[in-house]
Design a protein that fits this description.
With 445 residues, this protein is α/β, with parallel strands linked by helices. The chain has helices at residues 3-8, 14-23, 27-36, 45-49, 78-90, 105-115, 124-128, 140-153, 182-194, 199-202, 204-214, 235-253, 268-281, 302-315, 335-355, 363-373, 377-383, 387-395, 418-444; strands at 39-40, 57-58, 64-69, 95-98, 120-122, 157-160, 217-220, 258-262, 287-290, 320-322. The strands form two sheets. Strands 3-4-5-6-7-8-9-10 form an eight-stranded parallel β-barrel, surrounded by six helices. A two-stranded antiparallel ribbon has the order 1-2. It is elongated, with a radius of gyration of 25 Å.
C-alpha cells in the first residue's frame, strides 16, 4: 500500500514516524496530512531498500528545496553528477532531480539513486525522447514503459506533463517566450503532429497504476508555466492549472501521492495570488514552485532573482522550492553553480519558515546572533549555512589564528566596533541602575 492509502486507513507507517521525528511534529499530524493529500512522503519502495531517509513535503512541514542535477548531450560524466549530488546534499538540499538528457542515463541515474539518501526525481520524457529520432515517433506505450522503467530503478517522484491539452496550445500564441517547459513543448509538438490529445492525459489511469505499485509520487508538471514576466498569470497557465487540479483528484482516487508544480517567472505582486489559486484549484496538494524569477534582467544572477520570489512563494504557501543556479538560461550548471543555487534557496526556504512562524525556525538565527554579539567566530562559522565560505571571507583580511577570538572584524576595526561599544554601554547602564538602587538606601541612613 502507498503512504496515502496507509494514512487513510489510520495507519502510521514507519516512514511517517521517521518524518515526525525529523519535523518535530506528532506522528498523528503527519498521518492526517498525508491522508488528506496536503503532505507527501516521496519514498519509492525500491529506494527505501537502498537507504532512502524519508522526508515530507507539505505546508505543515518545513519548507523544502530541490536541486536539479544531470548531464546533457554536451557533457556526460557520472563522477561529475555524483559530485553535484554530494555538494547539494552536504549543503542541505532536501531532494534532487536527475534531469539527464545525454548519454549513459541509466547508469548515471542508478549511481545517483544508490548514493542519495534524499528522494530523487526525474522527468521520464527526457529519457524517452532519447530512444527515437523525432518526438512524433513516441507512442503512449513508450511513455508508460519509461515511467515503469524509472520506477523500477527507484525514482521517488516524477514530473509528468499530463495537464497540457490540445485546446490550450493556441492560448500561448501571444506569449513572448511561448512554451518554455522542455517536457511541455515536446508534448505540444507531439499533439500537433498527431492531432490527438496528450497521451499522458488520456492514459493517466495507467500512469496511476504504475506509480501506485512502487509508491512513486506524481509531480504534475507545469507545461505552460510563464517563461518571462510578460507571460505570467495568463489564460494558458491557469487553464492548465485547472486540469492539474482534476488530475490531482484522479490520482488521489487511485491511491497515489501528488504534488503540483508551479510558475517560473512571476512578478512579486502576483506571487501570493498564484499560491492561493493553486491551493483552491488543487485542493491544497503540496505546491512545488519552480523559481519564481521576479525579473528577467539578470542572467548570471538568476539564483538571486528567483530566490526573492521563492521566499515570497514559501511564505504564501509553497511547500518546496526548486532552486535556480547562476547558469539558468545560460548553460548546464557545474558543481560551483550547484553550491550557489542551494545556498540561495536554503536562505529562501528558511526565510519562508520564519515568515510562517514555524516553531523552532528562529532558534538558529538567535544562536548565531548571540555568537556574533559575543565575537565567538568559530560558533558563527559552525552555524552558517555555508561555514566554508563564512570562514574564508573572515580570513581574507584577518587570517591569523589570534583574530578568531578578536572582539572586532575588519569592517569596523578594534576602535569602532558597534557591538563592542554596545557592550560598554550595556555595562555602563547596568552600573548606573545599580547606583540608582543604592541611593535611596543610603539616604535612609
Amino acid at each position: 500500500m502507498t503512504q496515502i492509502e496507509l494514512a487513510r486507513g489510520g495507519v502510521i507507517s514507519p516512514e511517517m514516524e521517521f518524518v515526525a521525528r525529523r519535523e518535530g511534529l506528532e506522528p498523528e499530524l503527519i498521518r492526517s496530512e498525508v491522508a488528506r493529500g496536503r503532505m507527501i512522503i516521496p519514498a519509492n519502495t525500491v529506494h527505501l531498500r537502498l537507504g532512502l531517509q524519508p522526508m515530507a513535503i507539505g505546508i505543515k512541514a518545513s519548507c523544502k528545496i530541490n536541486a536539479n542535477i544531470g548531464n546533457s548531450a554536451v557533457t556526460s560524466l557520472a563522477d561529475n553528477e555524483l559530485a553535484k549530488l554530494r555538494m547539494a546534499i552536504d549543503l542541505g538540499a532536501d531532494t534532487v532531480m536527475d534531469l539527464s538528457t545525454g548519454g549513459n542515463i541509466d547508469s548515471i541515474r542508478a549511481a545517483i539513486i544508490e548514493a542519495s539518501p534524499v528522494p530523487v526525481g526525474t522527468v521520464p520524457m527526457y529519457q524517452a525522447i532519447q530512444n527515437v529520432k523525432k518526438v512524433e515517433e513516441l507512442t503512449a506505450q513508450d511513455l508508460l514503459d519509461m515511467v515503469e522503467h524509472q520506477a523500477r530503478q527507484g525514482v521517488d517522484y516524477m514530473t509528468l506533463h499530463a495537464g497540457i491539452l490540445r485546446d490550450y496550445i493556441p492560448l500561448t500564441a501571444h506569449r513572448i517566450t511561448g512554451i518554455v517547459s522542455r517536457g511541455g513543448s515536446l508534448i505540444a509538438q507531439w499533439m500537433i503532429a498527431h492531432n490527438r490529445e496528450n497521451p499522458l492525459y488520456t492514459h493517466f489511469d495507467d500512469l496511476c497504476d504504475i506509480m501506485r505499485e512502487y509508491d512513486v509520487s506524481f509531480s504534475l508538471g507545469d507545461s505552460l508555466r510563464p517563461g518571462c514576466i510578460a507571460d505570467a498569470s495568463d489564460a494558458a497557465q491557469f487553464a492548465e492549472l485547472r486540469t492539474l487540479g482534476e488530475l490531482t483528484r484522479r490520482a488521489w482516487d487511485r491511491g497515489c501521492q501528488v504534488m503540483v508544480e508551479g510558475p517560473g517567472h512571476v512578478p512579486m505582486d502576483q506571487i501570493a495570488m498564484n499560491m492561493e489559486k493553486q491551493a483552491v484549484e488543487c485542493n491544497e496538494a503540496p505546491f512545488y514552485v519552480l523559481g519564481p524569477l521576479v525579473t528577467d534582467i539578470a542572467p548570471g544572477y538568476d539564483h538571486i532573482t528567483s530566490a526573492i520570489g521563492a521566499a515570497l512563494a514559501g511564505w504564501h504557501g509553497a511547500s518546496m522550492l526548486c532552486y535556480v543556479t547562476p547558469k539558468e538560461h545560460l548553460g548546464l550548471p557545474e558543481v560551483e553553480d550547484v553550491r550557489q543555487g542551494v545556498i540561495a534557496y536554503k536562505i529562501a526556504a528558511h526565510a519562508a519558515d520564519l515568515a510562517r512562524h514555524r516553531p523552532g525556525s528562529r532558534d538558529r538565527d538567535d544562536a548565531i546572533s548571540r555568537a556574533r554579539y559575543s565575537f565567538n567566530w568559530e560558533e558563527q562559522f559552525r552555524l552558517s549555512l555555508d561555514p566554508e565560505t563564512a570562514r574564508r571571507m573572515h580570513d581574507e583580511t584577518l587570517p591569523q589564528e589570534a583574530f578568531k577570538t578578536a572582539a572586532f572584524c575588519s569592517m569596523c576595526g578594534p576602535k569602532f566596533c558597534s557591538m563592542r561599544i554596545s557592550e560598554d554601554i550595556r555595562k555602563h547602564a547596568a552600573a548606573t541602575a545599580a547606583l540608582v538602587q543604592l541611593e535611596p538606601a543610603a539616604a535612609a541612613h
